[in-house]
Amino acid sequence: MTDSPPDPTVPPDPTVPFDLTVPPDLTVVVPTFNERANVRPLVAALGRALHGLRWEVVFVDDDSPDGTADEVRALAQGDGRVRLIHRIGRRGLAGACIEGILSSSAPLVAVMDGDLQHDEGALPGMAARLGADPTLDLVVGSRAVAGGSTGAGLSALRARGSAIATRLARAALGITVSDPMSGFFMVRRDSFVTIAPALQTRGFKILADMLSCARGRWRVDEVGYVFRPRHRGESKADSAIALEFLGLLAARATGGVVTIRFILFALVGLSGVFVQLAAVWLMLALTPAPFGLAQVVGVVVAMTTNFALNNALTYRDRSLRGMAFLRGLLSFYAVCAVGAVANVGVAGALFRAVPVWWLASAAGAVVGALWNFVASSLVTWRTR
Ligand code: GDD
Ligand code: MN
User: Fold this and answer.
1) Which atom of ligand 1 is nearest to the CA of 114?
2) Which of 28, 30, 32 for mutating ligand 1's site (highest number of atoms within 8 Å of CB)?
3) What's the pTM value of the predicted model, to 2 decimals?
4) Cβ pair 150, 159 in contact under 8 A
């Protein structure tokens, strides 16, 4: 390496728009899952909108089957502003955003969808506000202030759901911004780093979680933008995101002590109680089976539905399929069997010490449930 100045007779490489030894002022984080066809149009749109700013874009891709990561890598080979975080064996929007933001060393970081629904034209205004006011921590792209609207971007059903979630978030999380469900915002990196350890990596609504964690400490501004229809591909939002959002509210209600995953696990466990009762009732009503046998069948049926529901919901970021599903089911039976022994053992010991039946029984159930949660996350749905 020499330190000689660049040769002015060599024309600058047109694909390298600025000197890479100068760090960017802004990182745009784009979480992606199956957005291959949107990558190039998005980078082109950012190039137009952010002209004059030093910026980079970080795609955080969860190993999309459509090859989004390959497309980003191909683009990055000719454009130093494009970076990729390629995550394997993991899923989840909030976690992807957090990782992307933490990968940045720029003073300002924006998050936006990879499908061109968020208006990149709002980014320079957001950066200007954060630049002009050093006490400002966050600027939210809002569909609910002047200049903003949902346009044709959401179905009527999604728009209703979004409105309900917004009211819930405001009531339960003490959030005051107009559009906490937005996935479009710009944050001061230093501010984000202080709250990052408290954030939930599950779920779809990272902004609502950030606002709840930073409550009362952050100064927040909003700019309007029009939510556009998706450019190509399909939305990944599904009915499970509503449940995950309720889990987020519950997690925050416990001050973050309890995770969204545990809340989902507990809800599934509760459903298992009803499944077991229904199965025992059916066995007794429809077959000549004695109670003991009916109870055993009821327990097995409930463990099986618990496994299937946890696999689809609680652990949907690492869902087991095919042979792994069967192996997982067997290991879940084993985990629950040990949990049942622990449940009975703890309840018995406590009852001998303090003979209050419901207290002893409930303590046994809590210990059994905690065991099932911890052991199944380590054994049945362990990360690779
Ligand atoms: N890495 C990763 N992992 N990215 C994901 C995942 C995932 O599991 N799920 C979704 N994404 C990416 C999508 O590829 C897209 O770029 C972005 O996250 C948003 O997903 P969409 O499927 O397009 O969601 P939406 O349009 O229904 O909702 C979005 O806009 C709303 C309005 O601003 C989200 O950003 C919502 O949070 C937001 O409320
Ligand atoms: Mn979208």
Assistant:
1) 16
2) 32
3) 0.83
4) yes
